Amino acid sequence: MITGSLVALVTPMHPDGEVHWEQLDNLVDFHLENGTHGIVAVGTTGESSTLDPDEHCRVIGHIIKRVEGRIPVIAGTGGNSTREAIELTTEAHKLGADACLLVVPYYNKPTQEGLYRHFRTIAEAVPVDQILYNVPGRTACDMMNETVERLADIPNIVAIKDATGNIPRGEELIRRVEDRMVVYSGDDATAADLMLCGGKGNISVTANVAPRGMADLCEAAIAGDRTRVESINEKLMPLHRKLFLEANPIPVKWALHRMGLIGEGIRLPLTPLDPKFHAEVEEALNSAGVL
């Protein structure tokens, strides 16, 4: 079982938008040195929507090679085309990913039956552990707990990233699937609460800039140490909030640049963080003790 702080890693880029491979190596090393429990490669935060399929797979392979089995690597391989998701998942499996993260199809807004068939078809096509990803705020499609419970019967669908931020709903989901599937948070601001309800980790944006703090938070929450959780989370909460002042990953890439870890590169249609937000993000970095 993969548990703990799973960083939704950014993809560093040159000013022209090309992938910066040396900085990517440095980020992987940064997480290995600071206690991150696993890396999610080319998810939303990794700008999966603007990498072409070849780049997508090259980044996944590059991270797997750099990690060298020291911590799990989860590959983002979802899409709104079932065929494309199968192709990406197949390639990630060949590259050695420990699991694949599959987002709910976006834009085309399938029915609940369509979602069930989509994920079942991918799971049957590729024998790799698969993690569902429900983030209705970005996909305009919400996978209901009843649908997740149906999918939990498929042996290689092993987990779900619940990014709804709805704790009562998340707690109900954990009860429904706890004997068959792991539930991770995908919402930093509410992650501690979900883990205290039985979630087994957090796929985190904040972990990009505060890996040690997020690792400590997840370990404490999974252990049920509420007092320690509250202490750590209070320090990190400004980051949880300020890293979403503009669409993810705009603020977190600027924060990493401010920390001297990456350049300013980001791909259109995303743009660099508006200067009016710089002071707020910098204040959150200082508050968390990472700057």
Present the secondary structure layout.
Elements lengths: L3 E5 L12 H13 L4 E4 L11 H15 L5 E4 L5 H14 L3 E5 L8 H14 L4 E5 L1 H4 L5 H7 L5 E6 L4 H11 L4 E4 L2 H9 L4 E4 L6 H12 L3 H17 L7 H9 L19 H10 L4
Parallel strand pairs: 1-2, 1-8, 2-3, 3-4, 4-5, 5-6, 6-7
Main location: cytoplasm
Catalytic activity: L-aspartate 4-semialdehyde + pyruvate = (2S,4S)-4-hydroxy-2,3,4,5-tetrahydrodipicolinate + H2O + H(+)
Family: Belongs to the DapA family.
Write a structural description.
- It is a single chain.
- The chain contains twelve helices and eight strands.
- The protein has helices spanning 21-33, 53-67, 82-95, 112-125, 136-139, 145-151, 167-177, 188-196, 211-222, 226-242, 250-258, 278-287, and strands at 4-8, 38-41, 73-76, 99-103, 130-134, 157-162, 182-185, 201-204.
- It has an eight-stranded parallel beta sheet with strand order 7-6-5-4-3-2-1-8.
- Strand 3 (73-76), helix 3 and strand 4 form a beta-alpha-beta unit.
- The longest helix has 17 residues, at 226-242.
- The chain is globular.
- The two termini are 33 Å apart.
